[in-house]
Amino acid sequence: MDNETIDLFVPGRLCLFGEHSDWAGTSRTVNSEITPGCAIVTGTQQGIYARAKRSDMFSVTSKIKELKDGSFECPMDLDSLSETAHQGGYFSYVAGVASYMCEWYNVGGVSIEITKRDLPVKKGLSSSAAICVLVAQAFNQLYNLNLNTRGIMNIAYWGEQRTPSRCGRVDQACAFGPHPVSMTFDGNEMHVDQIPVKKPLYYVFADLMAKKDTIKILADLNSGYPFARNEKEKTLHEALGEDNIRITTEARKLIKNGDAQGLGHLMTEAQEIFDAKVAPMCPEELKAPVLHSVLNNTTIKQLTYGGKGVGSQGDGTVQFLAKDKKCQDDLIDYMSHSLGLSAYPLTLKPQRAINKAIIPVAGFGTRLYPETRFTKKEMCPIVDLDGLVKPILLVLLEQLDAIGIEEICLIINPDDEEMYRQLLLRPLSRKHYEKLPEKMRAYEDKMTRITKKISFVKQYEPKGFGHAVYQAASFTNKEPVLLLLGDTLYRSNTSTPCLKQIVDTYDIYGKSIVALQTVGVKNVSSFGVFSGHWDDKEERILNCSEVVEKPTPDYAKEYLMLSRKKEENVCCAAFGAYVLNEKIFSYLGDAVRNNHTNEKGEIDLTEAFRKAIKEKDLIGFLVDGKSFDLGNAAAYQEAFARYNM
């Protein structure tokens, strides 16, 4: 890592709903009667691009014209960095974060070169928070600090607090990238949840090319906190409190449901509440004639579902939700050429839904010999949760069907193709069908429908699990795919099936996923074990930093153990289900073409995971459920006894 150069990108942030509620909610530390704050925030498509590497000094260089000073260099020394932070200006932000890192972490210097910036500054999009987050990310990656997103946000926040700027907690939402999040502010506590996007949302935000005094706006609004002394201040508390909770709660639902029209109408309602209840606290700035002229423009109204101000509001920046992609393009063109404003697109897209699954079943099943001399291990029977005796593979097919998977690829040995076609694709004879009771006929019809989703690819050489998976590369068509093991069953502890938990997590994070389960250190030698750091309060999302196949208990105890509030002395092992994106198949393809094999002469999926970890493109997800490995006699016996209990 010492000589490695990393690429970084951090977007700006756009507050969709809940402006001012971050600092208002923080006032609960003094007045518990204040309603917690809540904001819906997203990163923008525009941001700051940079390259970074380790250095003896701390330096930031740039050829961007807007940065008049051009570059900054300072010893990695707390006093020197703090002095620069207190002076103000663009480089005070980077110095503030570096000073925080110098004080609290054992790190050396970092050299950062800003290569591009297409993020507008001083327009309510928090370019200062973006550069602070970028610096924190540089230290985190270059010095392997294993900070989660919340940790990066906190460092960026406290780093900026060391400057003359006094940003709110909402600004650092840019650390989550161009995805919407819900942020709750309760005194000094902050909670962040990512919001899945059901359908594309076509926003446009624009610089109003006017003036506003943000310092005065914040000062006037802050004068009403923490205690309301008159009716005007009580109304302010109501707007940033109960009204805001209702608006943001409804906004989350609308985003999840893909209701763009309802969301646009909610934007208009939120602006009306702001004008009626918040603006009177600072009428000189929040009357905002330019903003309201644009909001009421008849041409714009025809292209949009609704609009509102941005950030501290006033005549700074406006945002609209266009009706579709064409309306988004037309709106940008109209605002740019007819109104003379600087307009930018922001499209919130759903992660590509998972519609495909692959199940490798080409192996012989040596550990279940001699049974596998007579039948494939995936065809061994199990009593399912509905009480019916089924082959293991059929249980998996039903679970995939239940969560809406549309195409299923079985990776088979070419010698077994006829057998699979006979068992899965040949309809039951009319004679046998008519002997079935009515309930079983309905089940047979269901099974016939499910098996129509199946296609086959062949693994001609037994060159390992990764090699088998790669045979399905064409089937995926570069779409994310759910990978299951043919000798593993999954049972949820909740009403949400294990596989749905996994695909729902992909909908939010959009990265390759390894499903995880906790195991005691003494049992790790049977698993692939993943280590890293938790990225969420519930400790279910793991930012993976290492994977080790079948480590010894001593190695796991020293290097791989994770701390969890609910369990002690545990490791996170593979659960037996994965979501693989296009990059994983690219890594596997390189290994196949270049014959990069492990010590057994096999193409290893684990090595592809290591590359994804290095690229920050793999997360672990701790499933609320149990997996049953039926690949050996003892495990099969346990599953037969316990799976349907």
Write a brief caption for the model.
The protein has 645 residues and is of the alpha+beta class.
Can you put this structure into words, describing what you see?
38% of the residues lie in helices and 26% in strands. The strands form 5 sheets. Strands 1, 2, 3, 4, 5, 6 and 7 form a 7-stranded mixed sheet that branches. A 5-stranded mixed barrel has the order 19-22-20-21-23, surrounded by 4 helices. It is globular. The chain has 645 residues and is α+β, with helices and mostly antiparallel strands. The longest helix is centred in the middle third of the chain and has 27 residues, at 231-257. The mean pLDDT is 92.
Structural class estimated from helices and strands: alpha+beta
Unreliable segments of 5+ consecutive residues: none
**CATH first level of the largest domain:** Alpha Beta
General form: globular
Q: How confident overall, as mean pLDDT? A: 92
Domain module count? 3
Strand content: 25-35%
Counting H and I runs of at least 4 residues, what is the number of helices?
23
At the fourth level of CATH, the homologous superfamily of the largest domain is Spore Coat Polysaccharide Biosynthesis Protein SpsA, Chain A
Give a quick account of the main beta sheet: strands, pairing sense, barrel closure.
7 strands, mixed
Number of strands: 24
CATH architecture of the largest domain: Alpha-Beta Complex
CATH topology of the largest domain: Spore Coat Polysaccharide Biosynthesis Protein SpsA, Chain A
Helix percentage: 25-40%
Radius of gyration: 28 Å
How far is the N terminus from the C terminus?
Answer: 49 Å
